[in-house]
Structures
1.
Amino acid sequence: MCGIVGYVGQNNAVPVVIQGLQRLEYRGYDSCGIAMMNSEGLNLEKVTGKVMELQGLLAQKKNSTSLAIGHTRWATHGPPTFDNAHPHVSQDGKIALVHNGIIENYKVLRDELENDGYQFRSETDTEVIVGLISKCYHGNLEHAVREALSYVVGAYGLAIVHADEPEKIVCTRKGAPLILAMGENEYFVASDVAAILHYSKDVIYLDNEEIGVLTPEGIETYSVADEPVVKKIHKITFNLEEIEKGGYEHFMLKEIFSQPQTIYDAMRGRLLPEEGNAHLGGIEHMIGSILHADQRYFTACGTSWHAGLIGEMMFEQFARLPCEVEYASEFRYREPLVDAKSIVFAISQSGETADTLAAIQEAKNRDATVLGICNVVGSSIARETEAGVYVHAGPEIGVASTKAFTSQVTVLSLLTLKLARLMGMSESDGLEIADAMQRLPENVEWVLKQADQIAEIAKLYADASNFLYLGRGVNFPVALEGALKLKEISYIHAEGYPAAEMKHGPIALIDKSMPIVAIAPQDKTYDKILSNIEEVKARHGRVIALATRGDERIKDIADHVLYVPPALSFTAPILNVIPLQLLSYYVAVERGCNVDQPRNLAKSVTVE
Ligand code: M6R
């Protein structure tokens, strides 16, 4: 959620940290700051607003240092003010700290520290950690950090410096992401690989409560029990270009247009078109357990939850395997019927979503087998799950998820195909599905060619206050996803509904100012959806229909028609969601919204 970057090495740390923070702005962005070590001690600069403003401030002052830690904040405790911005500094001015996460028992800790005479400057939960470390400090920062954190309940990724140990950054994490990285005689800490990719591709993933100590001599890591541990160095496989806009106006647009490739990447080496089957290396050894489980669950949040809904429908329709989909945030607290005979799939783009991590823990506590469907390699969810499948969408920077969603659905389709064949799906049906999946990238290309037409339609509807999205079967989750995309980036209220449910309530809302997006492919519910569209038209609603290429009939009743190629219900959600992504994108652009960094949202929600 918040972003952390730290540097120690031979070069000037300031531009490294600033560039890193800029790359992290998509994670959290209401204020930012940097703590720099110099011969006189700590030097602190903070601003409310963008990293660009901090950069300007630092340029005026010509700061230079070989050690610094920086932060971009997404406010949780206290509004985005100067005092609440990180880094937070101890009362004696010697310790500076940046934090991502939430300290749940901060109130109790704050009261205790205040009783001891400690004076707080901010309203944040974070500042109690600084106070505690200050209290526990007796000449060794990592020891003080370990002792201080033994009093803390909550989630954290932390980078801490002390003026008496000016060549050291101490880092630790619990339930929030943090990586360490090494270059040539320079070392980094960051909450996301994107921050340091320009300098290093060799990273260490800290496990919960492990401590990393960065100095100009290298990185040392220690276990929870304070024993030295040798950590594996992982090679990052994606490139800098993948986290840059590459000529597109926004990351979101670039990511929408990359879907022919990302969908292909999700299938590569996994789809077996000649056999009408699929092979998913990461969970091949779990297929028997999935088939024979007593219960199967998908758990996730937001867009990933919508992918789970599609997964559920496909599992049940094609593999005839019952399954449930749960919001991760609800799963944890509703005493789920999960035991050792249950399989729980956690779906997540970032692999760092706190609610999903908590749901995984709940499932594990109940002895279930938990599998991951994740995008970010090496993320917490990828490491907390027994086995899993990466969706290989590459870094997704736009806050509104697009390519990760279609890659998740692609992986769920492959898994369904595999299970369905084992459950008796005929070879000819398998071949037909595999062929349709193989043609997805070219069909997505075809859909993307309609971007200009969608941009024109968006202009006509950009001033609407409400939208209703209607779909049936696998297209109901697509309607939900279309509505979520619009809400997130254009701030227009939008709801997704099963089309036939409209007459049971939402029809009351329809008048000439209410645009309806009706997903109306030529499948078994086509005639019913046409009737729903007629019901809308009879009440003067305006209809944007998503229809199968060649459908002329729908032109007579809808105000606008967007076409997608003919599709099986297996591949329909992927094709149908793309025009809806584009529609929300162009509406948001038309309204002058910050598409990649919508207000109040962060890319990965690492607090519960
Ligand atoms: O990283 P995750 O997939 O676990 O994130 C889950 C949701 O926070 C995420 O999908 C969110 O709803 C996005 N902003 C959707 O565009």
2.
Amino acid sequence: MCYFAGCTDTARKSDNARRVLRIHLDVIGNGGRIAREFAAQYERETGIAVELISERLNSSERLTQYQQYLGARSADVDLYEIDVIWPAMLADYFVDVGPALGKEAAEFFPPIIRNNTIGGHLTAIPFHADAGFLYYRTDLLEKYGFEKPPQTWDELEGMAGKIQEGERAAGNANFTGYLWQGKAREGLTCNVLEWFASQGGGRIVETDGRVTINNPRALSALDRARKWVGGISPPNVTDLDEDETRKIFEQGNAAFMRNWSYAYSVMRAENSPVATKFKITQIPAGDSGHFSTLGGWQLAVSRYSRQPEEAIKLAKWLTAAPRQEIRAIQGSFLPSRPAVYETSATAAAIPQIAEMKEILVNTVPRPSGPTTERYSEVSTLIFTRINKVLRGELEPGPALEALDSEIKRTLQ
Ligand code: GLC
């Protein structure tokens, strides 16, 4: 406090500087750099320091870490960046931000607000949305005489095979046709959902709660993916997550890659070898159409924060349109507010923003709705067993049978 009449600005500043908010967030892609700039700006504007606890963790590892903080009722973190699949699992640990957001909630994509609303409480404010895209090399498609990117899994296999063969013959022994996330982590569950849903194999657990993972079409989709490993995909794809696949594609060593939106900005940077040589399109279709998994991150205020009101203000500031626009322009993080897609600055920075939005609004959610607080257990069962199939340690049929009974048991 400033006790004396005429006390100086410096005294006031050092007073305020003691107020610190701590936020745990992801630094994938350009997210870390942008967050540091926001933190500095927030401190200049409010006098409240924002400390970033930012590590590159994938979703599965981040969940484990958050569960440790929250389980220990830690007051060390005021705000958490949470995955779109976590609201039901972690709802009890977060403050209801609905009253503070008020009518502004209508400015966000309604399905994401509904996703984040558990038992009438808004557990988190949408920070950015996400969708799975197929990245492809425009120069290589042209070189090999393909006019359009692949529309179906069959076309993808044909094109990836031909380009891989040609590039290897031309001397790049490391070149690979198709990259995706095969590591035993959440990203694999996202890929599996896309394979199954697009090929008539259902959504693992349907919206009405039925477990449908064990069916002939899911089986043939899994069998197809298993054959990619060591074929059009590298043998170690079963150890790769999002950013590991992004690095290989960025180095120019792949024709196609499934990945999220953040990779777009990173790979368009001046020093990226593929900066002007790639585009995105929808994930290939099977006979049930195109399916892209819904992703994205939200800001949630910890119940154990000692300054929840200030933390809510910061969450509102970070998710406001001007910050979302900067995150879209500098990091291709897809805005969770539809209006931000329409600004000319966003369109200029991300030429494919309209296509990205179109894919986003047609995404399928993972079964975190019907499985509620059991989602992470269900997903862990899926990515653990499917990873074994992809490694050749388990046969697809018995794996799906086992998953069917394990998931049912978990949900009982
Ligand atoms: C991305 C998505 C997130 C998903 C994760 C899986 O971060 O936004 O929803 O769970 O990838 O690795």
